[in-house]
Amino acid sequence: MTRISAQTLLGWITDGQELALLDAREDGEFGASHLFWAIPCGLARKEIRARALLPRLATRICCVDDGRGLAETLAEWLESIGCTAVAVLDGGTKAWEAAGNVLFSGVNVPSKAFGEWVEHHYGTESVDARDLKTWIDSGRDMVVLDSRTLEEFTRMSIPTGISVPGGELAYRIADIVPDPKTLVVVNCAGRTRSIMGAESLRQAGIPNKVVALRNGTMGWELAGLRCDRGRSEKFQPGTPKTAALALQRARAFAEHSGVGVIGPLDLTRFEEDPDRTLYVLDVRDPVEFRAGHRPGSRSAPGGQLVQGTDTWVGVRNARIVLVDDTGVRARMAASWLRQMGHRDVFVVEGGLEAIKATGTAPIPVPELAAPVNLIGVTGLVHLLDSGAGTLVLDLGRSVDFRDRHIPGAIWGIRSRLAALGPQLSAARHVVITSPDGMLARLAVPEVTGLTSAEVHVLDGGTDAWQAFGRPLMKDRTTPPDEACIDFYLRPYDRNSGIEEAMNAYLSWEIDLVHEIKRDGTVVFGIPGETHAAA
Q1: How far apart are alpha carbons 306 and 277 in whole angstroms?
Q2: Residue 126's beta-bridge partner residues?
């Protein structure tokens, strides 16, 4: 196995070549302390994550952990599926820090840091929660636009707000706000999507005054104000009447940012190039993607892509091609990716003219083809009712288990199943589930090795159980916060100390702009006008 030093890895990060820096720990462990450019690829979901992050197996890869041997396990597995240039950081994060390099906490750090840089660089204006409340109460001519997903908006929102995810803002703003005198306020839960949404509108050149809600819904609640819950007001779907104006604005921003424009034939050549990694990302609303998309593309809604780029792009210095229908949303997202430091970013003119695929375009995972013993919802109900010693093992994320699980199920992490050995060995039947059943199928070999029980996979997972009308349980305390190593808990996800966690999170985001200066490998801005990330 190839091992490299921290000094060698630093050279790889800065040499301009393709590099996938994959952290083998689970998401919660990763979020505690990691390298700036690292991407979480925990062992529990390695088959799914790695194939999404590594469309080209020949790319250069470095696996990292905190020195526990997880990186070696991930590296061996990557080599087994055909990756040809895999190395391990000798000594992991401890060696990286000992060499004088910086470690970061949190998730989506490059995007979060970029948001803070944007606010500093462009002077994005913001409003305090108390002042916004006064404006709302006074009936000021204004709109509050929530740049998160509709699901997040429904969970909690600013009173009078409507859901307009960040990638839709510049595309739809002239329809939503036709009067240039109307004040526009953009919010999210914290800071990044508020800043990026507001600055997207400013960079698009809309005539309205635009401000971000300082610290989002967290700032609102910390000010002693109450969020609405359960609302679903959202933008009007379909092509906006003002799409031509939106394209004019987006084109100017993209040209200034150096975004490349290609045609379908160029994209085909990119797809056939064996020497470069390519990501083809569809930045439209997910509903539009499901209705029809280019084969081989992945859904990456524009605003969410910018605020969590490492969710979709795992290889530094790869080619990124953004696709949409009118060119507006692709240009806006591509402009920010360019300024974030992604060098080869393109939009496709006419990239959706030959739409063939529908649905969610699942990532190919060959391991899912292995035969497993499936059991349907009615079969599981029969086993549970029979009292035949049936154990239901849920391998979904800890936060998902808290929100909904089959009554009597126990929760586990696929990479930590040995801890459940006594319970598994005592069962006569073990039925594995996960939200859609995918992770459950992948875990069969590990579970079978820990029990002599008959092992089944719930066909369709917990989603199928719910669709069948079977009851689900909700328990925010199980598993407890300290056991959720598979998910980096947000302040709202915690069972205690929520206010303290909110303040800590907001301080962390604000401080990122200073931390990246210490790192020394981060440069944001338009190439040719590049400013250091501080």
Answers
A1: 19
A2: 212
pLDDT score for 354: 63
Report the largest interatomic distance among the alpha carbons of the chain, rounded to a whole angstrom: 71
Is 162 in a helix, a strand, or coil?
Answer: strand
Return all residues near 378 (Cβ < 8 A) that are at least 6 apart. Answer: 468
Is 341:42 a contact under the CB 8 Å cutoff? no
Closest CA to 34 of 97, 122, 117: 97
3-state SS, residue 123: coil
CB atoms within 10 A of CB 415: 21
CB 520 within 8 A of CB 239: no
**What single string gives the DSSP state of each residue in 8-43?**
HHHHHHHSSS-BEEEE-S-HHHHHHSB-TT-EE--G
Q: Which two tokens stand for residue 89?
A: 């950081």
Q: 240-294 pLDDT, tens per residue?
A: 999 999 999 999 999 999 999 999 999 999 999 999 999 999 999 999 999 989 9
Q: What distance in Å separates the CA atoms of residue 261 and residue 301, rounded to the nearest whole number?
A: 19
**Mean pLDDT rounded to a whole number for the chain:** 95
- How is residue 528 annotated by DSSP? T
**Distance of alpha carbon 341 from alpha carbon 525, whole angstroms:** 7
**Is the four-CA dihedral 92, 93, 98, 102 of positive or negative sign?**
positive
d(CA 298, CA 342): 18
Structure tokens, 6: 């921290």
What proportion of the chain, given as a percentage, has pLDDT over 70? 98
Report helix, strand or coil for 362. coil
Say if CB 377 and CB 458 are below 8 A apart.
yes
Domains in the chain (CATH in brackets) are 2-106 (3.40.250.10), 114-242 (3.40.250.10), 247-348 (3.40.250.10), 369-483 (3.40.250.10)
Residues 6+ apart with CB under 8 A from 438: 48, 365, 368, 461
Give the confidence band of 68 by pLDDT, cuts at 50, 70, 90: very high
Average pLDDT rounded to a whole number, residues 81-93: 98
CA distance 111 to 270: 26
Which residues fall within 8 angstroms of residue 444, CB to CB, at 6 or more apart?
370, 372, 432, 455, 457
Residues 6+ apart with CB under 8 A from 202: 122, 124, 210
Rg (alpha carbons) of the chain, rounded to whole number? 24
Are the C-beta atoms of residues 326 and 247 closer than 8 Å to each other? yes
Residue 534 is predicted with a pLDDT of 43
Helix axes 243-257, 166-176, angle to 10 degrees: 140
Question: Is the Cβ–Cβ distance between 223 and 187 less than 8 Å?
Answer: no
Closest CA to 464 of 499, 440, 448, 497: 440
Mean pLDDT, range 102-126, rounded to an integer: 97
Residue 319 structure tokens: 């080619």
Residues 479-513 have pLDDT tens digits of 999 999 999 999 999 999 999 999 999 999 999 99
